[in-house]
Amino acid sequence: MIEIRIHGRGGQGGVTTAEVIARAAFYDGKQSQAFPFFGVARRGAPVEAYCRIDEQPVRVHQQVYEPDYVIVLDDALTETADVFKGIKSGGSVLIASSKKPEEISAPEGVKIFTVDAYKVAREIIGKPIVSMAVIGAFAKITNLITLESVEKGIRDRFKGEIGDKNVLAAKACADLV
């Protein structure tokens, strides 16, 4: 089973990120689940969301304590939250950041990827909303989900022009990694 933890801030789309990844995995013929975890739910407060992907039915219903992958939607969280907690050796962390991977301090054995999803989102969507853009980079890095299924998942969640823009942002971020 592949376990993914997403770190973001309330209102940033971390929960939706987990849901769209799970939906994309489902479209790719896999079993999946997604759910949030937050304390006092308020805009801007740190939020975690989780996603599991497997070939078999997912029967675990608890937080992800030892993720294979971590997605960080706000690089400032690398300084204020323990985004690396429990990550498996050999795991990967994708951070929405203009920094280069070597500029981010990570535990030994953990691979860091960065993508300037904020720049992409501002250019394509018109706002610095990176949640769907980052999924494109995640798909490319992990090969767990296809970009075609990511597009379906995004369009399930966002209709019309905003769906189109989010799909373009996801594809642009995939091209950056």
| Approximate shape | globular
Mean pLDDT: 94
What is the gyration radius calculated from CA atoms?
15 Å
Low-confidence residue ranges: none
Number of separate domains: 1
Structural class by secondary-structure content: alpha/beta
Distance between the termini: 24 Å
CATH class: Alpha Beta
CATH architecture: 3-Layer(aba) Sandwich
Determine the strand fraction and express it as a percent band: 15-25%
Strand order in the sheet with the most strands: 2-3-1-4-5-6
Helix content: 25-40%
What is CATH's topology name?
Pyruvate-ferredoxin Oxidoreductase, domain 3
Task: Summarize the helix and strand pattern as letters.
Answer: EHEEEHEEHHHH
Count the E strands. Answer: 6
Report the biggest beta sheet as strand number plus sense, adding barrel if it closes. 6 strands, mixed
Number of helices: 6
CATH superfamily: Pyruvate-ferredoxin oxidoreductase, PFOR, domain III
Main attributes?
177 residues; alpha/beta; Pyruvate-ferredoxin Oxidoreductase, domain 3; six-stranded mixed sheet; 6 helices; 6 strands; 37% helix; globular
Describe this structure in words.
- The protein is α/β, with parallel strands linked by helices and 177 residues long.
- It has one domain: Pyruvate-ferredoxin oxidoreductase, PFOR, domain III (Pyruvate-ferredoxin Oxidoreductase, domain 3).
- It is 37% helix and 21% strand.
- It has six helices and six strands; from the N terminus they run E-H-E-E-E-H-E-E-H-H-H-H.
- A six-stranded mixed β-sheet has the order 2-3-1-4-5-6.
- Helix 1 packs across helix 4, helix 1 crosses helix 5 and helix 3 runs antiparallel to helix 6.
- The chain is globular, with a radius of gyration of 15 Å.
- The two termini are 24 Å apart.
- The model has no long low-confidence stretch (mean pLDDT 94).
